[in-house]
UniProtKB/TrEMBL annotation:
Gene3D superfamilies named in the record: RNA polymerase ii, chain L
Pfam family for this entry, one: Zn_ribbon_RPAB4
UniProt cross-references to InterPro entries, sorted A to Z: RNAP_P/RPABC4, RPABC4, RPABC4/Spt4
Main location as per UniProt: nucleus
Keyword field: Metal-binding, Nucleus, Zinc
Stored SUPFAM superfamilies: RNA polymerase subunits (SSF63393)
Originating species: Aureobasidium melanogenum (strain CBS 110374) (Aureobasidium pullulans var. melanogenum)
Domain of life: Eukaryota
Localization (cell): Nucleus
One Gene Ontology term of the molecular function aspect: RNA-directed RNA polymerase activity
Family: Belongs to the archaeal Rpo12/eukaryotic RPC10 RNA polymerase subunit family.
Stated name of the protein: Metallothionein-I gene transcription activator
Length: 70
């Protein structure tokens, strides 16, 4: 048999075994119409709580992110 037929890996590798989903954590967004800050949790409708507008922009992170360019 060839090597490809006996290898049953999918090509994905989990690097962090402590992954879990936190349903209580909210993510902050900005409303595209009234610029209000909207905190949404998983499963919440994507809608501004102030004006009802449905276009929300994710806020930029405060963490430093560095990319290596060549």
């Amino acid at each position: 048999m060839s090597q490809q037929q006996t290898n049953n890996t999918t090509g994905f590798q989990i690097t962090n075994q402590n992954t879990f989903e936190d349903t209580n954590r909210s993510v902050k967004y900005l409303c595209g119409d009234c610029d209000a800050e909207v905190a949404l949790k998983r499963g919440d409708p994507i809608r501004c709580k102030e004006c009802g507008y449905r276009v929300l922009y994710k806020q930029r992170t405060n963490r430093m992110i560095q990319f290596e360019a060549r």
